[in-house]
Structure to design on (385 residues):
């Protein structure tokens, strides 16, 4: 890390660690909040982002069953956030493995995404009785890296050695976060800031929180994914968006280089303005896309229910349709177990949807058959505009 790339005092300080040929520079960010000038452009963008999230919040409140969309949207976020870190699993891969489990440990990329989903769901449950805190962050990290890349690096434990971003070693690194001796204080200041609930627009607070966590980089692995989880947890805890319907990682993945560069420029030059504009643009784009996607999926659900009414379908068949919006792949054993009906009754409901053209069998096997509602999957995989 070249100290000439950093403007001293702008958003933190460089400190020299070690002596002699092994010495290196590390960056210690200033405690939040930064001194920020709200330009007219930034203020307008923050207002647009707030309105977009407000529309999405309103749509969420009108959902007949919020979990119909919460479940797949969490998985969209999990796939995109994990792909930023180099995994190659798709949303379809994740849904398939959840519907028809196999030896998932032989698919490390899928396992990482499954862990992300588990960490998200765990964190949302824990927020009911534990505030957003370093304790919660550590618990989330332990769930996130269990049995996958990073599991050898003390899951849930703050690092006790130096890490870095980019480059083969500390001398060549693009960014070196605070030495491990500084991490505890940095996190303590970070937690105090979150709990202080400053009079700052919540979406800007979310951008502050994400940057600061990434700048501290308190774990040996998994920091990016935990940092993106924190955005969702903060928005839910602050009631800015009580339901996790916003998947910002889709935008971050699409503009991955810009995302990484802008986070780095906050550290190097204190360029909060560019990072905040990028973050708020991501919020506007993803909130509008999620709102439109929600309307499409709800219209699709009503269309399917109309078809079932014409066919005189049983209640379990309606249950199956709703289940498909949580996961468009289904097997008879999985469906029977989920709603507590017999295997023959589950298969009968599946056959009714095959007859209606809503499902199709995709394995070609006579046993262990898997069915897919391609129309729902296609709607869930709509790329960011």
């Amino acid at each position: 890390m070249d100290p000439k790339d950093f403007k001293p005092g702008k958003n933190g300080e460089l400190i020299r660690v070690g002596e002699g040929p092994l010495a290196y520079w590390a960056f210690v960010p200033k405690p939040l909040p930064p001194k920020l000038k709200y330009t007219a452009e930034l203020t307008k963008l923050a207002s647009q982002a707030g309105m977009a999230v407000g529309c999405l919040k309103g749509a969420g409140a009108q959902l007949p069953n919020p979990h119909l969309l919460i479940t797949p949207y969490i998985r969209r976020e999990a796939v995109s956030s994990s792909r930023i870190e180099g995994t190659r699993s798709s949303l379809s891969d994740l849904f398939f493995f959840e519907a028809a489990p196999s030896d998932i440990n032989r698919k490390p990329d899928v396992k990482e995404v499954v862990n992300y989903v588990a960490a998200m769901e765990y964190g949302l449950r824990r927020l009911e009785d534990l505030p957003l805190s370093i304790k919660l962050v550590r618990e989330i990290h332990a769930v996130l890296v269990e049995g996958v890349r990073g599991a050898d690096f003390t899951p849930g434990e703050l690092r006790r050695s130096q890490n870095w971003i980019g480059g083969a070693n500390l001398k060549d690194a693009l960014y070196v976060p605070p030495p491990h001796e500084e991490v505890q204080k940095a996190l303590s200041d970070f937690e105090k800031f979150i709990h202080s609930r400053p009079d700052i627009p919540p979406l800007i607070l979310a951008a502050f929180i994400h940057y600061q966590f990434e700048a501290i980089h308190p774990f040996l692995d998994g920091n990016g994914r935990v940092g993106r989880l924190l955005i969702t947890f903060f928005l839910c805890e602050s009631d800015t968006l009580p339901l996790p319907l916003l998947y910002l990682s889709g935008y971050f993945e699409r503009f991955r280089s810009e995302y990484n560069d802008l986070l780095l420029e906050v550290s190097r030059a204190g360029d909060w303005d560019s990072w905040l504009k990028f973050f708020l643009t991501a919020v506007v784009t993803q909130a509008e896309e999620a709102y439109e996607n929600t309307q499409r999926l709800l219209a699709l659900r009503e269309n399917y229910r109309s078809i079932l009414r014409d066919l005189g379908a049983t209640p379990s068949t309606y249950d199956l349709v709703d289940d498909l919006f949580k996961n468009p792949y289904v097997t008879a054993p999985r469906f029977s177990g989920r709603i507590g009906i017999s295997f023959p009754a589950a298969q009968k409901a599946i056959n009714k949807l095959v007859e209606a053209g809503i499902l199709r069998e995709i394995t070609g096997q006579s046993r262990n058959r898997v069915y897919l509602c391609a129309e729902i999957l296609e709607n869930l995989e709509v790329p960011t505009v």
